[in-house]
Amino acid sequence: MISTIILFILFIVVVSTTLWLFLVSFSLWQSSNQKTFYVSTPKHIAQKMLETLDAQKGRNLIDLGAGDGSILRLSAQKHETTSVGYEITMWPYLSSILKNYLFKKNNPQLKNLVQMHYSPALDADVSEADYIFLYTSPEFNQKLAYKLKRELPTYSRIVSLTFPLPDWTAEEEITIGDYTYWLYLKAHNESERSL
């Protein structure tokens, strides 16, 4: 009887480890193929960025390249924004599903405020976004800059961590320790809409 239990436990450990290694390997392969890498935004920086956005209750925040969804949960919890994320790297996306489930279970009053999509950021519907949160790469910001100028409403506000948006005029450049981010107002970049 004990040997059967030990074999069962060993089987579970082997299967779990194999699945975990597959997911990590797939995620690394996917990241290198798509030139996307997941780097978490430190919480104190994310909080400052949300304050810079002037995030308010009932408004829409979109995180393009949302990773594990930590910005979405923070914005929903602190500012009660409807927060939607887009991620294409498997590992952080799967992590977001678990973390969002636990967040919604512990915060039932906020359960409808956080959504995560396994979808490319360039396919995101940003037409009703009040706020855009970015922590991507220079190459990806180049692609996003054009999309955001074409599709964002005039009143939208954008923060971009580490890499500025090309061909956009920043309202503010903020540096906190080793981190720099930029605030952009769509209204002040309207004349460049036809890029």
Task: Write a concise keyword list for the protein shown above.
195 residues; alpha/beta; Rossmann fold; 5 helices; 7 strands; 44% helix; elongated; transmembrane helix; SAM-dependent_MTases_sf; transmembrane; FAM173A/B; S-adenosyl-L-methionine
Could you please describe the fold and organization of this structure?
By secondary structure, the chain is of the alpha/beta class. The protein has 2 domains: 1-34; 43-192, Vaccinia Virus protein VP39 (Rossmann fold, 3-Layer(aba) Sandwich), CATH 3.40.50.150. Helix content is 44%, strand content 19%. It has 5 helices and 7 strands. Strands 3-2-1-4-5-7-6 form a 7-stranded mixed sheet, with helices on one face. Strand 1 (60-64), helix 3 and strand 2 form a beta-alpha-beta unit. Helix 2 (43-53) crosses helix 3 (70-79). The longest helix is centred in the first third of the chain and has 33 residues, at 2-34. The radius of gyration is 19 Å and the shape is elongated. The chain crosses the membrane at residues 6-29. One of its GO terms (biological process) is methylation. GO terms for molecular function: protein-lysine N-methyltransferase activity.
Task: Walk me through the topology.
Elements: H1 2-34, H2 43-53, E1 60-64, H3 70-79, E2 82-87, H4 90-106, E3 114-118, E4 131-134, H5 138-151, E5 157-161, E6 172-176, E7 179-185
Parallel strand pairs: 1-2, 1-4, 2-3, 4-5
Antiparallel strand pairs: 5-7, 6-7
Helix pairs in contact: 2-3
